[in-house]
């Protein structure tokens, strides 16, 4: 009984304000079933829908998901095309259900490499949802290093034009040049699939995030797995360099 009571009170802890997830393991999930990799991505898209709903139900304000990296273009045309098609279908569905779901869509990444049709859909989804206050950030053609280089270039251009001065640059001001401008840093970053690396995700923003690596492939990731990651987060002792 005592154990049960402890568990209950732990799950009632406030969720992190911002959770970020590296949605990894779709390919292996498909391979394990003798299916093409695109079937894994389709299953992964379903998991995203479930987990986004669960985050909203828990009261998470920001959910950032790594959907396609600057390095993922190395994959076959068939696989990349399959991912882009799933993305298009998801965005069309999201536009249809916008009033019901009330989720704000933002996109982190260089969208100019996406098809004009997808770029248009991303623009429509973000402008149509701008008023909602639960925010999902999709990282598409996103790379943490690319984001920092772009921020540095943007700042340098302003400085060269005389609009700002290098001496005035602070960590806070530099953050405003990132895709994540205005979004608090994620308290919790989750990577399923068993890989123990960042793969170029949120390098700037996750300086003090708690990482939870889990041995489950993304298509199998359940709301209960998210609860487990949040419990693990609450058990961490965050010191931010202090004692
Ligand atoms: C993540 O799953 C989805 C993308 C990178 C687009 P993977 O496709 O990387 O799956 P694994 O890692 O090969 O199993
Ligand atoms: C990271 O996963 C990118 C996404 C999940 C979108 P990858 O599967 O591309 O990363 P590596 O190749 O295992 O590092
Ligand atoms: Mg992978």
Short overview:
It is built from 9 helices and 6 strands; from the N terminus they run H-E-H-H-E-H-H-E-H-E-H-H-E-E-H. By secondary structure, it is α/β, with parallel strands linked by helices. The longest helix is centred in the N-terminal third of the chain and has 22 residues, at 37-58.
What does this structure look like?
This protein has 243 residues and is an alpha/beta fold. It is 46% helix and 15% strand. Strands 3-4-2-1-5-6 form a 6-stranded parallel beta sheet, with helices on both faces. The longest helix has 22 residues, at 37-58. It is globular, with a radius of gyration of 19 Å. The protein starts with a helix and ends in an 8-residue tail after the last helix. Bound molecules: 3-methylbut-3-enyl trihydrogen diphosphate (2 copies) and magnesium ion. One 3-methylbut-3-enyl trihydrogen diphosphate (IPE) binds at residues 23-28, 68, 72, 83, 193.
């Amino acid at each position: 009984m005592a154990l049960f009571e402890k568990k209950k009170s732990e799950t009632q802890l406030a969720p992190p304000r911002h959770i970020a997830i590296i949605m990894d393991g779709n390919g292996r999930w498909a391979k394990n079933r003798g299916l093409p990799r695109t079937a894994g991505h389709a299953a992964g898209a379903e998991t995203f829908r479930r987990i986004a709903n669960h985050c909203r139900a828990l009261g998470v304000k920001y959910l950032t998901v790594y959907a396609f990296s600057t390095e993922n273009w190395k994959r076959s045309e068939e696989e990349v095309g399959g991912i882009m098609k799933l993305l298009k279908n998801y965005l069309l569905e999201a536009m249809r259900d916008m009033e019901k779901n009330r989720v704000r869509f933002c996109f982190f990444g260089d969208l100019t490499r996406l098809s004009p049709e997808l770029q248009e859909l991303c623009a429509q989804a973000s402008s149509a949802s701008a008023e909602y206050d639960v925010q999902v950030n999709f990282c598409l053609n996103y790379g943490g290093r690319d984001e920092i280089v772009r921020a540095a270039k943007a700042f340098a251009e302003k400085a060269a034009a005389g609009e700002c001065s290098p001496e005035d640059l602070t960590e806070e001001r530099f953050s405003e040049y990132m895709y994540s401008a205005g979004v608090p840093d994620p308290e919790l970053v989750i990577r399923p699939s068993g890989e123990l690396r960042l793969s170029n995700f949120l390098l700037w923003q996750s300086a003090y995030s708690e990482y939870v690596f889990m041995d489950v492939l993304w298509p199998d990731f359940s709301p209960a797995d998210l609860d487990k990651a949040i419990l693990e987060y609450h058990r961490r002792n965050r010191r931010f360099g202090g004692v």
